[in-house]
Design goal:
Blueprint (H helix, E strand, L loop, with lengths): L3 E2 L7 E2 L3 E7 L5 H12 L4 E3 L8 E8 L7 H4 L3 E9 L1 E3 L8 E4 L6 H7 L5 E5 L8 E2 L2 E2 H6 L9 E14 L2 E8 L5 H11 L4 E11 L2 E2 L6 H5 L3 H5 L14 E3 L2 H8 L4 E2 L5 E7 L2 E9 L2 E7 L4
Parallel strand pairs: 5-14, 16-18
Antiparallel strand pairs: 1-2, 3-5, 4-5, 6-13, 6-14, 7-8, 9-12, 10-11, 12-13, 14-15, 17-20, 18-19, 19-20
């Protein structure tokens, strides 16, 4: 759905609601990619669902309008990456943009690396990198690192579901990693190298999945640029696509009206969180708590 608003001296803006699966190129910040897509759609409101480093490429789901209300579900979703790791050289940033800080002449075999992979699968502890957007006393880690200031970096639990070796030709390995929120792939590369008495850094990183969304369904900014407006809008998914893993709750017209007005309703379903519907109309996210349905975050009604 979209409506158009024109500001004097500015580009016209539209109300645009939906989710765009963008294939972000390497070398572009997530915010720059967002702003580029927002410009193409002339959207009034937009946000992304988890930053990709400028070095990284791949799937960056963008939310427009009403979909921004439900972006948190994808921020918390599991992700999948394909990482190109260069062994034998460590850098200050853990990727190819940093200065070389260590080197190892030892040549590793495929069997050695394969043998080390299982110890990183499951729930493990990971020390966040010094160049990270995490905050310490109100400042991002990377601001301290750029100033040469050491700060405490507390290990955090991460959940890695799978690591698969896709290709290996010394000194480079290509890994597929499926993981939970908060996992740093460059730290994984460094930790893997340390486990086999070597060092490493990321040459490239590509996100291939986020929740139920897959990279093969994404579109590039260049492709969007070449589209006419109708074809561009056809790439947008509905806002409730962000909630595909959440159970569905169908309600009658009276219940739907009450929920959209912010009122609780007597419930008969199992307690939990649901995406609510009246027929094919998406209402929003509701909680069943005890014997009532409580509106949690509802879709726009106009």
């Amino acid at each position: 759905m979209s409506t158009t608003r024109v500001d004097a001296g500015r580009l016209s803006r539209r109300r645009v609601d939906g989710v765009l699966l963008l294939d972000k190129p390497a070398g572009l910040t997530s915010n720059a990619a967002l702003q580029g897509a927002k410009r193409l759609y002339r959207a009034e409101k937009a946000g992304h669902t988890g930053t990709l480093d400028p070095l990284a490429s791949g799937l960056l789901p963008l939310c427009f309008g009403d979909a921004t209300k439900f972006a948190q579900s994808l921020l918390d979703a599991r992700k999948e990456y394909v990482a190109t790791v260069r062994f034998g050289i460590a850098t200050s940033t853990g990727d190819s943009e940093g200065a070389v800080i260590a080197e190892s002449a030892a040549m590793l075999t495929l069997e050695t690396l394969q043998g080390a992979l299982p110890r990183f699968v499951g729930r493990t502890r990971q020390v966040p990198p010094s160049y990270a957007a995490l905050k310490h006393e109100g400042r991002a880690y990377y601001s301290y690192a750029r100033a040469g200031v050491e700060i405490p970096r507390v290990p955090r639990e991460v959940d890695i579901g799978a690591i698969e070796m896709l290709a290996f030709a010394w000194p480079t390995a290509i890994l597929r990693v499926e993981c939970g929120k908060g996992t740093y792939i460059r730290v994984l590369a460094e930790d893997l190298a340390a486990a086999v008495d070597s060092c490493a850094h990321l040459l490239a990183l590509r996100r291939t999945a986020s929740g139920a969304f897959r990279l093969e369904d994404a579109v590039t900014l260049d492709a969007l640029e070449g589209c006419d407006p109708d074809a561009r809008d056809a790439y947008l998914l509905p806002a409730d696509s962000l909630l595909a893993s959440m159970p569905r709750l169908d309600v009658d017209a009276e219940t739907a009206r009450s929920l959209m007005q912010g009122r609780t309703v007597v419930a008969t379903a199992t307690p939990g969180r649901y995406r609510g519907y009246r027929g094919e109309r998406f209402l929003g996210v509701v909680d069943i708590d005890g014997e009532v349905i409580r509106p949690r975050r509802m879709a726009r009604t106009d």
